[in-house]
Write a structure and sequence with these properties.
The protein is α/β, with parallel strands linked by helices and about 700 residues long. The protein contains 29 helices and 19 strands. The structure holds (S)-3-Hydroxyhexanoyl-CoA. (S)-3-Hydroxyhexanoyl-CoA (3H9) binds near residues 63, 105, 133 and 134.
């Protein structure tokens, strides 16, 4: 056999194992080898049954995504699946690990499916902007019924082995893949079980009217839930086809739809995001260094960030010592942590015993000396340089040699913080996003003097916490907030120039964001931006345009949701917010003060400006090497700022929109405000060379 396929015989049973680490993706060599092995074993008279398995960690986790976009190569997966199904000997697949996508589609075509009790089974193609393309939409409903199959495929979320058994997706859950599959197969042979082909089953799809109704209803729900996304709707189309066609016609329709989707910008953007988030942890520092020990963690501060970081670390199995300056603040911090765990218990996500076990690793104190032996301390105190410096001075004294001092600052200069310690090589920025126990992005900010193994430890911490790390160099706001400031300003300018905050929010929501910038400012709290603007006031370039409207709202104490008023009114706990005529009045007055005649902005124009501001600043962030590569900016914006994943991130969006188009938009806007809209050198250079951001990702 090829090196990707291993074929051995166990008496009258053939065992075919797919060996394509790390996830046994179904590349062309795997497909060729698999088909050869199947043909060989089918012909062999001494063989009564065939077991299909995956080596290492998993049964195949899907098609080889790297092959998407290349000319298709034979044999294709549907052909293999049809072949498996047609074999007149039982084909049993023994599943384990992540049996996903094309991997699960192979399983669906087998005559029997048994799974190790820890197996995850799913059809996650929607997360690549695709639909299952090897019979999944036609076979899965025949095994578990249309509503369950549609939910599974539209969400893309895997289910566990027990649920799969309950749904009828698998025949048995086993404890040991090798022994269990052989025993199961011996029993089958002895009992001379009749073969059932999935494609011939119709017992769960014979209620056409009821199923039609279900599909229409689910399609409608998924349209809202997966706003603007093509694939969940297309799965519905395939299910409708299934109701009125033969298996073969249904499968052909599915295949055609799969290839149509593969050509879309949505699918290309999703696939870009998949690889971008895996690339972000490939950084130069890690090549030459190993992480330091990370067995214990200190967290300073029990506010929203400190308690979130504490929970993220405890959940990752790391013992945490939380330090606060006095007992009162410490009690609040403990309450913040307990509130989250109590909710986990209430919702059944964790048992009381599990939470007790977690608490046994949680130490709370007001004594900084308690940090003397921890491996890393993350400070999450008030966002003010002097406060942080005081904390770092204490840490410098208290922390053991080789201990790591991390700051959770979201803007401040970590080089400056490092410089007041005697050990700048041990100082790093770990910028968590709120709520830190939920948000997956972690910006790892690399100051100039930090040691490589400290950076490696930051990435290791991210891995333990199951976060998506992005490396950033030091600048005001790092990658994410620096870019946010720019398009935040752009939103303010459009507001002052004539658009209402509500029109801007609607346009950005339509683009695919979960909310617009003004809703986001209200959610985050206007006071935070206000404090930052005041901090930057002395060094602000007075030639830059400045919009006073947000300050006017803050002066009234309108900080957003938490005060019941911001750009919106949140009366009687209404969290969605109502448009506020008084805000519009304030805007009008400010315009009058500046002698501005309001301009009408179309939705398209709002999006163009907002995105151009974002892309231009992001290009500078790459040009100045604050981000290692454009795809790291995409990951930051996707995971920390709600950029719609089906658009792949701002840099991927810029490539699909055309960098020359971005540049001409910038030049048009530049006529109004040459400073703000000055095109990034990087964009100019790339357009001159006919290149795009993607060319800088490798
Ligand atoms: C499909 O099947 C279409 C069919 O319906 C129809 C076909 C006709 N291909 O994530 P990890 C790489 S669509 C190629 O860090 P984990 C990944 O890039 C597919 N490469 O591991 C990484 O490479 P590197 C449907 C893949 O343990 C390395 O493997 N399936 C693929 O954290 C390790 O990955 C999916 O969408 C692939 N399919 O998570 C599943 N998968 O080391 C996609 C991974 O160079 N995969 N790689 O950075 C996953 O969700 C996760 O990888 C998995 C393991 C959960 C399996």
């Amino acid at each position: 056999m090829t090196e990707k396929i291993n074929l051995v015989y166990h008496g009258n049973i053939a065992i075919i194992t797919i060996c394509n680490p790390p996830v046994n993706a179904l590349s062309v060599e795997v497909r060729k080898g698999l088909l050869d092995a199947l043909k060989k074993t089918e012909k062999k008279e001494s063989i009564d049954a065939i077991i299909l398995k995956g080596s290492g960690k998993t049964f195949p986790a899907g098609a080889d995504i790297k092959e998407f976009g290349l000319p298709p190569q034979k044999p294709d997966l549907p052909t293999i699946n049809d072949y498996i199904e047609s074999i007149n000997k039982p084909v049993i697949c023994a599943l384990h690990g992540n049996t996903l996508g094309g991997g699960l589609e192979i399983a669906l075509a087998c005559h029997y499916r048994i799974a190790h009790y820890k197996t995850k089974l799913g059809l996650p193609e929607v997360s690549l902007g695709l639909i299952p393309g090897a019979g999944g939409t036609q076979r899965l409903p025949r095994l578990i019924g249309i509503p369950e199959a549609y939910k599974m495929m539209a969400s893309g979320l895997p289910i566990n082995a027990d649920k799969a058994l309950k749904l009828g997706l698998i025949n048995k859950v086993i404890q040991d893949i090798d022994e269990g599959s052989i025993q199961f197969t011996i029993n089958l042979i002895e009992n001379k079980e009749k073969l059932t082909k999935t494609k011939d089953r119709d017992d769960l799809i014979n209620n056409v009217n009821e199923d039609k109704k279900n599909i229409i209803e689910l399609k409608y729900n998924f349209k809202k839930q997966y706003r603007n996304q093509l694939a969940p709707q297309k799965i519905g189309d395939c299910l409708e086809k299934l109701l009125h066609s033969s298996f073969e016609e249904g499968q052909n329709f599915e295949r055609k739809t799969f290839f149509e989707l593969l050509k879309t910008e949505q699918s290309k953007s999703f696939i870009h995001a998949f690889f971008a988030e895996r690339k972000s942890s490939k950084i130069p520092e890690i090549k030459s260094a190993h992480p330091r020990n990370l067995n214990t963690l200190g967290v300073i501060g029990g506010g929203t960030m400190g308690s979130g970081i504490t929970i993220a670390a405890l959940n990752a199995g790391i013992p945490v010592t939380m330090v606060e300056r006095d007992q009162n603040s410490l009690d609040k911090g403990i309450k913040n942590v307990e509130k989250i765990y109590n909710r986990d218990i209430e919702k059944g996500r964790l048992s009381s015993a599990q939470v007790e076990e977690i608490y046994s690793r949680f130490t709370k104190t007001t004594d900084f000396e308690a940090l003397s032996s921890v491996d890393m301390v993350i400070e999450a105190v008030f966002e003010e340089m002097n406060v942080k410096k005081q904390v770092f001075k204490i840490l410098d004294k208290v922390l053991k040699k080789g201990g790591i001092l991390a700051s959770n600052t979201s803007y401040l200069d970590i080089n400056e913080l490092a410089s007041i310690t005697s050990r700048p090589q041990d100082v790093i920025g770990l910028h968590f996003f709120s709520p830190a126990n939920i948000m997956r992005l972690l910006e790892i900010v690399v100051p100039s003097k930090v040691a490589n193994d400290v950076v490696a430890t930051g990435f290791y911490l991210a891995k333990l916490m199951k976060k998506i790390p992005v490396r950033a160099s030091v600048c005001d706001g790092f990658i994410g907030n620096r870019i946010l400031n720019k398009y935040g300003d752009c939103a303010y300018f459009m507001m002052e120039d004539g658009a209402t905050p509500y029109e801007i929010d609607r346009a950005i929501f339509e683009f695919g964001y979960p909310m617009g910038p003004f809703q986001m400012f209200d959610l985050a709290g206007g006071d935070i931006g206000w404090a930052m603007r005041k901090r930057l006031e002395p060094i602000r370039n007075k030639n830059n345009r400045y919009v006073h409207i947000p300050d006017k709202l803050c002066e009234k104490g309108w900080f957003g949701q938490k005060t019941g008023r911001g750009f919106y009114r949140y009366d009687k706990g209404n969290r969605k917010g109502d448009e506020d005529p008084e805000v519009l009045e304030i805007i009008k007055l400010e315009r009058q003060k500046k002698g501005l005649t309001p301009i009408k902005f179309t939705q398209e124009e709002i999006i163009k400006r907002y995105l151009a501001a974002m892309i231009n600043e992001a290009a500078d962030v790459v040009y100045e090497k604050i981000a290692l590569r454009p795809s790291d900016v995409d990951v930051t914006k996707l995971y920390g700022y709600g950029f719609p994943r089906y658009r792949g991130g701002p840099m991927r969006y810029a490539d699909s929109y055309g960098l020359n188009n971005v540049l001409s938009d910038l030049k048009r806007f530049q006529k109004e405000d040459p400073l703000f809209w000055k095109p990034s050198e990087l964009i100019i250079n790339l357009v001159q060379k006919g290149d795009n951001f993607e060319s800088l990702n490798s």
